[in-house]
Specification:
5 domains; 23 helices; about 675 residues; 5-stranded antiparallel β-sheet; 5-stranded mixed β-sheet; OB fold (Dihydrolipoamide Acetyltransferase, E2P); alpha+beta; about 35% helix; globular; D-amino Acid Aminotransferase, Chain A, domain 1
Length: about 675
C-alpha cells in the first residue's frame, strides 16, 4: 500500500475519533460503546507505530483525556470529598485496625464497631440542603472542587427536594452515589459500555430533560459539611436518612472484629452476581462519629475508613514478550506483552510482572499461557501460569544485570527500615546520565501534579528528546519555536499555543516545584511538607550547600529514607545545575503558611514516654491544628517537653539543663482547654 492511501485511511480514522470525542465529551451523547472507541484509538496508534510519517495534532497519542466540559459551573466543596484507601486481604484489614488502635492509643482488646456497606460502582455526588431545601448538587470533581449538576440531580426521584422533619439539620451536605440498576441498563447498553459510564454520561447532559429520561438512582451514605446533625454514629445516621426520605444500601451492617468483616465480605461476594447493581467491594467505616473526628485524615484519605475490594475479573492469554521499563527513580519494571484480551470491557495488552523476584517465584517465561487479573483501575498482572501448556523449548527469563539504557550495573538496595534487600532492581544513575531515566523525569516534570503544561504530553517529551530539543527541564522554557514550527505535524498556530502554555506555567508554587523535580520518595504530600518547612525556594535551594541534613528529621512526616533521597539529589552536579537554571526562568512562589492564631502558636513540643489514652500521633495532630510544631530532639529550639510513663531520662535531664519547661499530659491538655 502506498503512502497516499495509508495517509488517507489514517486521516479518516482521526476524523472519526474527533467526531466521537465531540459527541461524548461536549454533547454527552456517545455514538459508540467504550470498546469500539478504544478499538479505534488502538488502530490509530498501531498505524502511527508502523508508519512513522503519520502525524496529527488530534492523535490519541498526544491527547490525555479531554478538556473538562464548559457546560457546568464549578464550586468548592465545603468539606473535601476524599478518596479511600484499599484493602485486598484479611492481613490488610488487620493492619488497618492496628493503625487505628495505635493512633487512639488503645489496646487490641478495645472493641471497634464498623459500619460495613457494599460499595456501589457509580458516580459520587454531594447534595446541599439549607433549612430543609435542596439547594445545590455537586459532582466529586477533584475532591476539592466539583461541577454544579443541580438541575440534573433534581430529576432523580430518590433525591428529596424538601424535607420538613424538625430533626433535619439546618445546613448539611448529604453525600451518596448516583447509579443505574443492571435491569435498567439493558435498554442503554448500545450507547454505554457499562452502568457506571451510563450514569456518568447522564449526569453530564446539558439539558436536564435528557437526564430525566434516564432511570438514575441515588443512595445516600455519608455527610460532608453539617450544622445541627444530632446523630452520634453512622448506623443511626443511616436510619435517619431513611426517615428523611433517602434510600440507603439495604445490605448495610454494623460489625465488630476482622473475622466477622471477612465473613460478611464472603457472604456479600456470593450475592454479588444476583444484585441489581454493580458493587466492587465493601466500605468499612468507624461507626462512632467522635472517633472519626479524632482519627482525622491522612493525605487524601480518612484514617477511619477503608474499601475492601472484591476479586477482579480474570482472563487467559499468552505472553508474547517481556519488556524491561525504566522509571524516573531508576526502577527496572518487567512488563509482559500479552496477546490482547478483553477483561471487564477493557482491552488489555500489557500486564505488570512487578519485579525480578516475582518472575522467579512464578517462573514466568515468554510463550507461557497465563491467567491475567485486572482489579478496577489497578494495572493488570499475571496471576498464574498454566504449566501444562508450556512449550517444550521454553527457556527461563534472565533478568538484565545491566541497565538496558545506559549500561550501568544494576543493583538491589538494602532497606534500612525492613533490614532486607529490596525486591526492585535499579539503575544507580543520578541526575541525567541515563537517557531513559532522564526522559521519565521530564515526563514527570510536565505532568498534571507538577507543571501541568497543556499540550506537552508524554509523546511530545519523547519526540523533542529524540530531536535533541530538550535534555534538561530548563530546556522546556528555552525552546527553539522556529525549529518546532518546521517539524511535521506542527504549524504556526499549534506552536503559538504551546509557547503560551509554557509561558503560563513559569509561575509555580513551591510545593509543585519540589514535586516536579522527581526526587525519589518525595511525592506530592512530602513536597507539601517540605514547602511548608522551607517556605521559600532560596531556603530549599540552600540545601545544596549543606553537609548535615539531620535537622530535616524534625519535619513531621519526613524520615531517614526521604532525607537520604534529598541528600543524594543535592549531591549531584546535574541536579544543582537544573535548580540554578530553573531559578533564572521561573517565579517560584513562597509557601502559604498556616494561620498563626492557634493556642500553641510559635511553641515547639517533644513527647517522651507513654501517654494515657492518647497516642503520640494524635498529640502531634493536636499541636499542628493549634499552630504549634513538633521536633524530634531536645535542643534550644524546644519550648515544652511532654512526659508520659517511663520517659527517657537522658531527654528529661537535658531539657532541665537547658531550662526547657517539662510538662505532663494533663498540663498539655490544659493548654488546649481540654481535660485528660
Amino acid at each position: 500500500m502506498d503512502k497516499i492511501k495509508i495517509k488517507k485511511i489514517y486521516e479518516e480514522k482521526i476524523n472519526l475519533l474527533s467526531k466521537y470525542n465531540l459527541f461524548y465529551y461536549d454533547k454527552s451523547k456517545p455514538k459508540v460503546s467504550d470498546q469500539q472507541y478504544d478499538g479505534l484509538k488502538n488502530e490509530i496508534l498501531l498505524l502511527e507505530k508502523k508508519y512513522k510519517f503519520l502525524k496529527s495534532k488530534n492523535s490519541p497519542a498526544k491527547a490525555v483525556g479531554h478538556k473538562p466540559s464548559k457546560n457546568f459551573k464549578k464550586f468548592q466543596h465545603r468539606v473535601s470529598m476524599l478518596s479511600l484507601s484499599n484493602a485486598f486481604s484479611e492481613e490488610d484489614l488487620k493492619n488497618f485496625e492496628k493503625r487505628i488502635l495505635n493512633f487512639l492509643s488503645e489496646k487490641k482488646e478495645f472493641k471497634i464497631i464498623y459500619s460495613a456497606e457494599p460499595k456501589i460502582d457509580g458516580i459520587s455526588a454531594s447534595l446541599t440542603y439549607k433549612n430543609g431545601i435542596f439547594e445545590r448538587g455537586l459532582s466529586r470533581g477533584d475532591g476539592k472542587e466539583g461541577e454544579d449538576i443541580t438541575a440534573n440531580l433534581s430529576t432523580i426521584k430518590d433525591i428529596p427536594k424538601k424535607i420538613l422533619d424538625k430533626d433535619f439539620p439546618k445546613d448539611i451536605d448529604i453525600r451518596g452515589e448516583v447509579f443505574i440498576q443492571n435491569s435498567d441498563f439493558e435498554s442503554l447498553k448500545e450507547k454505554f459500555a457499562n452502568p457506571r459510564n451510563a450514569a456518568s454520561g447522564s449526569l453530564r447532559q446539558k439539558n436536564s430533560e435528557d437526564t430525566k429520561k434516564i432511570p438514575l438512582k441515588f443512595i445516600a451514605y455519608t455527610y460532608g459539611f453539617e450544622q445541627g446533625l444530632r446523630q452520634k454514629n453512622q448506623s443511626d445516621y443511616l436510619k435517619k436518612l431513611n426517615e428523611w426520605g433517602f434510600k440507603t444500601n439495604p445490605l448495610n451492617k454494623t460489625i465488630s472484629g476482622v473475622k466477622n468483616l471477612i465473613q460478611n465480605y464472603n457472604d456479600i461476594e456470593q450475592q454479588r452476581a444476583n444484585l441489581d447493581f454493580d458493587i466492587d467491594g465493601i466500605v468499612y467505616k468507624i461507626n462512632n462519629f467522635e472517633l472519626q473526628k479524632r482519627l482525622g485524615n491522612v493525605a487524601n484519605a480518612p484514617r477511619w475508613a477503608i474499601a475492601h475490594k472484591f476479586s477482579s475479573d480474570k482472563a487467559i492469554s499468552k505472553i508474547l514478550d517481556i519488556d524491561i521499563q525504566i522509571g524516573r527513580t531508576g526502577a527496572l519494571t518487567p512488563v509482559a506483552k500479552i496477546k490482547p484480551i478483553n477483561i471487564g470491557g477493557v482491552l488489555v495488552s500489557n500486564a505488570t510482572l512487578h519485579n525480578e523476584d516475582e518472575i522467579k517465584r512464578k517462573d514466568i517465561r515468554i510463550g507461557d499461557i497465563v491467567t491475567v487479573e485486572r482489579a478496577g483501575d489497578v494495572i493488570p498482572h499475571i496471576l498464574s501460569v498454566d504449566l501444562n501448556k508450556r512449550p517444550k523449548k521454553s527457556a527461563k527469563f534472565i533478568f538484565p544485570n545491566k541497565c538496558p539504557s545506559c549500561g550501568s550495573k544494576t543493583e538491589k538496595e538494602f532497606n534500612k527500615i525492613t533490614k532486607k534487600i529490596d525486591a526492585v532492581r535499579r539503575c544507580p544513575s543520578e541526575g541525567y546520565y541515563c537517557d531513559k531515566i532522564s526522559i521519565e523525569k521530564l515526563k514527570h516534570f510536565v505532568s498534571k501534579d507538577a507543571f501541568n503544561i497543556d499540550g506537552f504530553g508524554k509523546k511530545i517529551v519523547e519526540n523533542f528528546w529524540k530531536l535533541k530539543l530538550i535534555k534538561y527541564p530548563q530546556d522546556i522554557f528555552n525552546l527553539d519555536f522556529l525549529k518546532i514550527e518546521n517539524l511535521e505535524g506542527w504549524g504556526k498556530l499549534s506552536v503559538q499555543n504551546l509557547k503560551y502554555s509554557i509561558d503560563q506555567k513559569k509561575n509555580i508554587s513551591l510545593e509543585r516545584f519540589i514535586y516536579s523535580l522527581g526526587i525519589r520518595h518525595i511525592g506530592l504530600e512530602n513536597a507539601k511538607l517540605l514547602s511548608k518547612h522551607f517556605v521559600s525556594f532560596s531556603k530549599f535551594k540552600n540545601l545544596s550547600k549543606q553537609i548535615d541534613y539531620e535537622d530535616m528529621l524534625n519535619i513531621d512526616g519526613i524520615g531517614e529514607t526521604q532525607v537520604s533521597s534529598i541528600k543524594s539529589f543535592f549531591s549531584n552536579k546535574d541536579n544543582k545545575k537544573v535548580l540554578n537554571e530553573l531559578a533564572n526562568v521561573l517565579l517560584i512562589k513562597d509557601a502559604i503558611q498556616n494561620s498563626d492564631d492557634g493556642l500553641l502558636n510559635n511553641k515547639t513540643f517533644l513527647v517522651t514516654g507513654k501517654l494515657n489514652g492518647i497516642s503520640r500521633a494524635e498529640v502531634k495532630s493536636l499541636i499542628e491544628e493549634n499552630s504549634g510544631k513538633t521536633i524530634s530532639s531536645v535542643s534550644k529550639k524546644l519550648n515544652f517537653l511532654i512526659i508520659g510513663e517511663k520517659p527517657t531520662k537522658k531527654k528529661v535531664d537535658y531539657a532541665k539543663q537547658l531550662k526547657i519547661k517539662v510538662i505532663d499530659q494533663a498540663e498539655f491538655l490544659k493548654m488546649l482547654n481540654k481535660s485528660s
